[in-house]
Amino acid sequence: MSGERGPGLADPDGFYAALMAAHEGLSEAESAALNARIVLLLADAAGDEAAIAAIARARATAPQEKAGR
Amino acid sequence: MPRYAYRPFPYRKAPELSGSGRGEAAVAIVGAGPVGLTLAIDLALHGVPSVVLDDNDVVSIGSRAICWAKRSLEIFDRLGIGEKLVEKGVTWKIGRLHHRDREVYSFDLLPEPGHKMPAFINLQQYYVEEYLVARAGEFPDLIDLRWKNRVSDVKPGRGGVELSVATPDGPYRLHADWVVACDGSRSTVRAALGLDFAGRVFEERFLICDVEMEAEFPSERWFWFEPPFHAGQSALLHKQPDNIYRIDLQLGWDTDPEAEKAPERVIPRIQAMVGERPFEIDWVSVYTFQCRRMERFVHGRVLFAGDSAHVVSPFGARGGNGGIQDADNLAWKLALVLAGEAPESLIETYDDERIPAADENILNSSRSTAFMTPKSPMEATFRKAVLELAGTEPFARRLINSGRLSTAHHYRATGLSGEDALLPGEAPLAAPGAPPVDAPLGAGSGFLSERLGGGFRALWLGDPRHASNRFECECAEAGLKALAATSPEARRRYGAEKGPAVYLFRPDQHVAARWPEAAFSAARARAALTRASGRAG
């Protein structure tokens, strides 16, 4: 798909299901900690450039409430 | 345009009750819904007679299954009603996703031309059943359609099944060589045999409503996450013929389904969605999401097809379409076995092929349901992140799941597939086990899907300048009907761009085997035919 910036997910539904399953039964604090570990591991998989760019892209996608839409 | 007129089909006293019936049937089909009728017509096209027993005498009340997928339309076309359905139905291929008050993105389900049938049509189940009943009536010697004939007991025996049937004129017994239960999710046949229907019920309910109104909405599938008119929930709008719109509204688990069906509850919800325009409610139902299937669909001489064998949550159009593919898979196998041209074990491949198909439908449907109904704050957080990223990050759009719409199942692990002699990786979507990929044949000969028919067929694909009569000679020697396709689309879709290729198709039009032309011979075709009809042992 045009506009993709990484190697991409061949099976997006499979990834999403695995991610949700990993959080099942965790407290909010445990989920937040799991997310932190996942982000760090994905940064390692993505490499410096892509990981730094991801931070900027995530910050640019402001939640709708704050953007006043 | 008047609303659909439900006309009862004529009840007739069963011949068994007036002394003229034989009390026997080669195939008894329980349930005259889309699946049972499809099966009866397909069997009739193979020359196999059937008795169809239905406890009611009208078509489906309410639109129920409305989205008919391309593969189902191709199957209906083979049965002779595909064009009639497309003409009446609302053709669509664009889906639009909304989050709150903004459109997130749209998708096209059939981005390439060169297919006879559209990606989807919307058509109320009652029309599909009406057209199927009319088509079944064109086989008076082969299809014995018995309304108000309720199966009250099922006794499997040696070499067949004894059915007890209740009618307004009293009960009778019918011995069937084979029984196919197409009697829906509350199957009486399944209950009579005491068989399990295991699975998962999701704690989610949707209000499903047919609304009649004059509106200018386009022929697209519109889905909303957290729409402004239905805070915090999901909604779907789909156009049907006769100015009927399907509206699905998520209710949540804490609601009382009976109370939600009351007009004073339904009308304000619809008004919030469609605004000031006048409308009338045609049909309302409340639907609990569930995914279940039987452990096996083949139980001796009793077979299960459609919702009796498996049910899925909606929003993928995988219930009705999955059932039509069940019938498509089963009809030719029953016909070969009844004709003595295949061993009875061929029927077991119905399980081998349709159970993975049901599992694929259940997997997709479960994932869609999970995305629509986050069950923890963290799931809600992730879904919100996906929806917010999707506006600017294309990858995130593919994570949004408002239903993964039905596509035909590829029978990857089936024992019926023969040789795949093309180069590895060539046209993987057309490898043995695959559903047919439609394409123009070339030279004004129409489409592949309408010429494959309902028997074994060999197809030559290549540049017309390279056509030789060797292919036809080998086919004749193997007793195979031969077809040729020369269009660039067909050659591309079947991996025959570099050199000509030959495909063997099964009677349900799935690919049985394929070769580069040079490797094709009558002997190899015969070996593939033997395997595809379950005679390979």
Whole-number radius of gyration of chain B?
A: 24 Å
Low-confidence blocks of residues of chain B: none
Strand content of chain B: 25-35%
Q: How many helical elements of chain A?
A: 4
What would you say the CATH architecture of the domain at 15-90 and 122-197 and 292-362 in chain B is? 3-Layer(bba) Sandwich
Number of DSSP E strands of chain A:
0
Largest pleated sheet of chain B = 8 strands, mixed
User: Which band does the percent of strand residues of chain A land in?
Assistant: under 5%
Tell me about this structure.
The complex is a heterodimer of chains A (69) and B (537). The longest helix of chain A is centred in the middle third of the chain and has 19 residues, at 28-46. Chain A has a domain at 27-67. In chain A, helix 2 packs across helix 3 (48-60). With 69 residues, chain A is mainly α. Chain A contains 4 helices and no strands. Chain B is built from 15 helices and 23 strands. Chain B is an alpha+beta fold and 537 residues long. In chain B, a hairpin with a 5-residue loop joins strand 22 and strand 23 (511-516). The termini of chain B are far apart. The radius of gyration of chain B is 24 Å and the shape is globular. Chain B has helices at 34-45, 70-79, 82-88, 125-136, 188-192, 257-260, 263-274, 318-338, 348-372, 377-389, 394-397, 448-451, 470-478, 488-493, 522-532; strands spanning 24-30, 50-53, 67-69, 90-92, 94-99, 102-108, 120-122, 143-146, 150-157, 160-167, 170-181, 198-212, 221-225, 234-240, 244-250, 280-293, 298-299, 302-304, 310-311, 457-461, 481-485, 501-505, 511-516. Chain B is 29% helix and 26% strand. Among the domains of chain B are: 15-90 and 122-197 and 292-362, 3-Layer(bba) Sandwich (FAD/NAD(P)-binding domain), CATH 3.50.50.60; 428-532, Glutaredoxin.
Task: Describe the secondary structure blueprint for this structure.
The complex is a heterodimer of chains A (69) and B (537).
Chain A: H1 12-23, H2 28-46, H3 48-60, H4 64-67
Helix pairs in contact in A: 2-3
Chain B: E1 24-30, H1 34-45, E2 50-53, E3 67-69, H2 70-79, H3 82-88, E4 90-92, E5 94-99, E6 102-108, E7 120-122, H4 125-136, E8 143-146, E9 150-157, E10 160-167, E11 170-181, H5 188-192, E12 198-212, E13 221-225, E14 234-240, E15 244-250, H6 257-260, H7 263-274, E16 280-293, E17 298-299, E18 302-304, E19 310-311, H8 318-338, H9 348-372, H10 377-389, H11 394-397, H12 448-451, E20 457-461, H13 470-478, E21 481-485, H14 488-493, E22 501-505, E23 511-516, H15 522-532
Parallel strand pairs in B: 1-2, 1-11, 2-8, 5-13, 11-18, 20-21
Antiparallel strand pairs in B: 3-7, 4-7, 5-6, 9-10, 10-11, 12-15, 12-16, 13-14, 14-15, 16-19, 17-18, 20-22, 22-23
